[in-house]
Amino acid sequence: MKKITTILSFVFITIILFGCQQSNDKKLDNEVSNTDKLETQAEVTEGDFTYRLVTKKAEYSENEPIKIYAELEYTGDKGEIEIFHSTSPFSFPMVETTRNYEIEYGMNEPLISTTLIKGEPLREEFVGSGGYSSEDKNEYKDFMKRVMDKEFPAGHYVVNGIADFYIRVSEGTEPEEKYELEAQVGFSVIN
Q1: Tens-place pLDDT, residues 9-29
Q2: 51 band by pLDDT with thresholds 50, 70 and 90
Q3: What are the DSSP E strand ranges found in the chain?
Q4: Distances (CA, A) of 119 to 46, 76, 83
Q5: pLDDT bucket at 2, cuts 50 / 70 / 90
Q6: Which of 73, 84, 82 is CA-nearest to residue 47?
Q7: Looking only at Cα atoms, what is the longest distance across the chain?
Q8: Burial class, 48, CB count within 10 angstroms (exposed 0-12 / middle 13-18 / buried 19+)
Q9: How many secondary structure helices (H) and strands (E) does the chain include?
């Protein structure tokens, strides 16, 4: 009898816990995700540099051009400073959260230098990104082809912008100070 009572108690507790878990899952489905709360502008300051990431609108139509840009501004004591970076100090990788697709942002990696003048932001616009392999599903390939043509399908996008560069600590020396400033903005594309 004691064995049956123990088994029934275990089954009863399992049913209660399972019911609570289902209730919590429903609550999570109805909550607004963090990606829905993202702003259209973000600004990060580190040392003598301010990085800005901006999408012009929170919502675009499906055939409308997406306007995203990044700025890097030098705010230090010197009149100007030289930074070193890949093809660009900016990258615009994204995630489309409706489908959970990552949109990579590749670029060539030569060493280029740019002189930033104090108070004059270096600005660059998003020019497109993405890619796929022959092993990817057709649905993913079709999505990426559209993104690569700057025709974003309906969905919610999070831009994980990065400004990646370094400076020389003192003129003519090898020691360097590396910067990787990150910011996020979000936008939706509707039919």
Answers
A1: 443 333 333 343 333 333 323
A2: very high
A3: 41-46, 49-55, 59-61, 68-74, 80-85, 90-91, 94-96, 101-103, 112-117, 122-125, 155-168, 176-190
A4: 15, 9, 15
A5: low
A6: 73
A7: 87
A8: middle
A9: 2, 12
